[in-house]
Fold:
Amino acid sequence: MPSTLSLRIRTSACTTLAVAALAAGTVLTAPAAGAATGTAAPAFLSASQLPPHPTSSWTAGRVTEGFPDEIGSCVSTEGVPSYDYRNRLFRTDVDTNAAQLTVVADTAAHAKALAAHYDDLVRTCAERIEKADPDVRAEGRDYGKLPVEEGARVRGLHTETSGGATDIALMSVGRDGRTVTVVKWAQMGDFGDAPVAAFKKTTTTAVNKLY
Structure:
């Protein structure tokens, strides 16, 4: 059975980036692709910087262009300007996997709005999953803010299907200047299986490592 966390949840008009931009006191306009040309590319996490797995080591994929499906269960590009996305996927020999996304906005104000928008999508993800599929029960948890660069926040998401399949994910959104990063860790299980402290360390490392 496919993981419930692979569900593609489309955001509604009321949760577009325009709303986040208004909340941040700025108006976003779509920049041309590659607007951040000339800026050093953000660095990514390495496999050793992910929460340790008790029975399997992590393997890191190459950094590639584009928005990964592994992030898209909660976060999407709908209503977001045409920025250039880069990502890196991680896996273990068991069911645990992870992903990191980075995007460089054209201004720090736009990056702040984008980070707020993505965090709001993660915050409301459980509700949207349940609305999209009545056979899935979902619960989100807020694990708080992290004092790194311009800030980061960690949240958790647990889903369970009517057939009994359960998945747990930890997601974080952080920002350093004009750059936003989203990190996701996921495996089968529930909140008791989530390495929250280790994931907070991973998130702090991810934001600090961007530049």
In short: The chain has a mean pLDDT of 86. The chain is about 20% helix and 30% strand. The longest strand covers residues 136-146.
